Amino acid sequence: MVDDPKPGPHPFAGDPVFDLHVGGKMQLAATVPLAGRDDLSLAYTPGVARVCEAIAEDPGMTQHYTWVPNVVAVVTDGTAVLGLGDIGPAAAMPVMEGKAVLFKQFGGVDAVPICLDTTDVEEIIETVARLAPSFGGINLEDISAPRCFEIEARLKARLDIPVFH
After folding, report:
1. Which entry of 6, 25, 44, 156 is annotated as an active-site residue?
2. pLDDT digit string (tens) for 128-158?
3. Ramachandran angles phi, psi of 12, nearest 5°
4. pTM assigned to the model
5. Is the pLDDT of residue 68 over 60?
6. Residue 65 catalytic?
7. Catalytic (active site) residue 6
8. Does domain 67-164 match CATH 3.40.50.10380?
9. Where are the domains of the chain?
10. What local confidence, expressed as pLDDT, does residue 155 receive?
């Protein structure tokens, strides 16, 4: 892993807002020691197989042995971003990263920004539903009305985790 993930000079170098956003505002870090072969064989193969088998036998075990109960997906299609409007999924990423770091800083909850390249209600619902087993909750963010309300209602009816916007 690189110590400083921020790349070299950028087009807006010297502007404190852009400087803060260089390389994004988030990173993923291990919560367990990975100092040597023994640690690796516990965290990954062969040790992880025992945990997988326990979860296969009782899916509720994800609550004990994975990040699922403490991670939220922050999902957008980029159609109603702050005061910016429909700026699309790529341009929405800095806002979703910002929301994710707020979850962590002020709630102690990890969050993963997910910017979907579709505005189709059915595609959004299906995509989020398929991703849901990896998360303890779904935050629908900056999806234009009235679609956001339909998406939220249908996901709440379909999923067994919190869905909110």
Report:
1. 44
2. 999 999 999 999 999 999 999 999 999 999 9
3. -115, 30
4. 0.89
5. yes
6. no
7. no
8. yes
9. 31-66, 67-164
10. 99
